[in-house]
Amino acid sequence: MTTAARPTFDPARGGQGRGEKDLSAISKQYSSRDLPSHTKLKYRQHGQGTIDEHRNRDFKRELEERERKLLQTNSNPTLSLTSGPTETPTKRLKIDTEPQQIAANLDADDPIVSDGDEDDDSDAS
Q1: Which one of 32, 53, 54, 93 has the lowest number of neighbouring Cβ atoms within 10 Å?
Q2: pTM of the full predicted structure?
């Protein structure tokens, strides 16, 4: 007969060996997950954007003042804030002149042949 799935008539009980003392005694070990954490709330201090500070500020006026200062410090009076980033004219000229220089140097070592000087033998026949 097999021993599988047979009832136990003598169940295991805690004895007097090491670690087998009174099981009802309170353990002195505890997990860090059992400890209380995040028990204090932080509140905004003065100067950290409290509700009262935002309530008393005029954001539209501050924005207009900053835009006005920016336009005054800018050396180009025709520049507006909505025009976006501008390119320097030297960069644009450099990009435009490069193809001309490349075309000029493309056949610099070849002899110049004009259209009228070409001798084509196929026309003579």
Answers
A1: 32
A2: 0.27
Domain membership flag for residue 56: yes
Alpha carbon distances (Å) from 51 to 43, 48, 57, 58, 66: 12, 10, 10, 13, 23
Amino acid, single-letter form, for residue 125? S
pLDDT tens-digit profile of 47-82? 888 888 888 889 999 999 999 999 999 866 555 555
Residue 122 is classified by DSSP as: G
Residue 64: inside a domain = yes
Structure tokens at 119: 């001798």
Q: Where are the beta strands (DSSP E) in 2-118?
A: none
Look at residues 47, 67, 72, 69 and name the one whose alpha carbon lies nearest to residue 57: 47
- Count: domains in the chain: 1
> Residue 58: inside a domain, yes or no?
yes
